[in-house]
Amino acid sequence: MWDFDLTRAISRMGRTSPFILLRLLVYVGIALGYILVTGIGAAIGYGVTSIGDGDGGGAAIGGLLGFGLVSGVLYWAREYLLYLIKAGHIAVLVELLQGQALPAGRSQIEHGQQVVKARFKEASILFGVDQLIKGILRMLNRMVMSISRIIPIPGLEKVAGAVNAVINTSLTYVDEVMLAYNIKTGSDNPWQSSKDALILYAQNYQALLKNAVFLMVFMYASAFVIFLLILLPVAAIAALLPGSVGVWTFVSAALLAWSLKAALLEPLAVTAMMDVYFKTIEGQTPNPEWDEKLSRASDKFRELSQKATGYVSESVSTAGNSPDAKPDVATPPNSTS
Hints:
With 337 residues, this protein is mainly alpha-helical. Helix content is 78%, strand content 0%. It is globular, with a radius of gyration of 23 Å.
């Protein structure tokens, strides 16, 4: 079975209520923004195509354009959502796991963000680290969990693909646990600590992946229940609108369910997974054999290793060239590419 305690995870998450409220405001706000802009686009499309003898068939096109507009804005804001909200929340959760006292109210949010800025000088560095971690985790999944390699039965590839897709989905919050390791170790080199975190995950992938899958099933089952509870009132409101909203009723309910999943269920899964991860790796050090395996298997892992080495070299160079620089403080590179 699983190795996490949901009751304890809920209790810990509750102690970070300022971040939970912030997440609710941000993610529900995003969902309402989608619904509002999509609705405006649909209304404009309906109005334009209903002039004269038109049937208002442009509502769907207008809605899609509105949906795409909000998606484009969020695409550019994704780095800062990670930097200021998710990572800040992880920072205070790490301190809570270590038994430290947390500030209350708004000061807790400011404290978490300050911790993140101390570890990752720029949002682009954290985003670059996060993207590399995600790519390496997907590669590790393919390397160690490919059923078609273990059992070479004709036609099993499709089953293996479905299972691997489920496992990949379960890794969507494991990368945040890697960021938690970054913060917990207090390393000045985020690339090196991320590399260590990944190696430790690989050394214990069976136990950790099992828990990740259990948490994913719980999270998506809960999100589906939330969707069903939201669908009825959304459908009642949609029935009052002119024209046929059709699929947009389900889209709106799904967006609201997603916002609650992101605000409440994802931090719960991360809290539980952090507990399992840190208990599992306690007393362990990164195994050079896994370092070699991952280096052979993944271009992204080799890139991570190069960035870890380059970060140290550039920090030393910068410290040597600046009369006021402190030799023990790392200066991040200008690019994360």
